[in-house]
Design brief:
The protein is built from five helices and seven strands. By secondary structure, it is an alpha/beta fold. A hairpin with a 2-residue loop joins strand 3 and strand 4. The longest helix is centred in the N-terminal third of the chain and has 13 residues.
């Protein structure tokens, strides 16, 4: 852990923002759509942000994990799969894309874009979920919306995305 943080502190002086993608956590082993992060993941995510990381992107679990705003950064414990045919459980039918704006101050804005990845329905071509289904996915992973959160389904966000 200290080696990661030392590397972040060294590179942080040379860049506007640091994003870390890390392979961590347990694979989804049951049909639950959001795995809680392990204690070690939370500790490492927080230490990385304390060292200067703006965004931590977790992979490995094959299912969605929670999203946590911590200080001026953000932790995606698991974005889930994007195109995957290994399982057909509810935990593997949805995933997320993230639109993220970072600066030297950390997270400026973020948008969660839920997608259907069920190969039986979308034939390995992820599709953005409609508002009702998409908001249900967002509500499972994002406990609190802060002033940096931009709702994908709002009219204001659609106007901004089109520019």
């Amino acid at each position: 852990m200290n080696l990661f943080c030392a590397a972040v502190k060294k590179v942080r002086k040379e860049v506007d923002a640091v994003v870390v993608s890390i392979h961590w956590g347990q694979e989804v082993g049951y049909d639950y759509p959001v795995n809680p992060p392990e204690k070690e993941q939370v500790e490492l995510g927080h230490k990385l942000i304390d060292a200067g990381v703006s965004c931590v992107i977790g992979t490995q679990s094959h299912g969605l994990g929670p999203v946590e705003r911590y200080k001026n950064g953000i932790i995606f414990y698991s974005l889930g799969d994007f195109v995957f045919a290994g399982r057909h459980s509810a935990a593997h039918r949805t995933s997320m894309l993230v639109r993220l704006s970072l600066s030297e101050n950390g997270v400026e804005s973020y948008t969660l874009i839920p997608v259907n990845i069920n190969p039986l329905e979308v034939k390995y071509s992820p599709e953005i979920l409609g508002k009702k289904s998409g908001e249900a996915v967002i509500n499972r992973v994002l406990a609190e919306r802060d002033d940096k959160y931009a709702d994908y389904y709002s009219e204001d966000n659609k106007i901004q995305a089109a520019k």
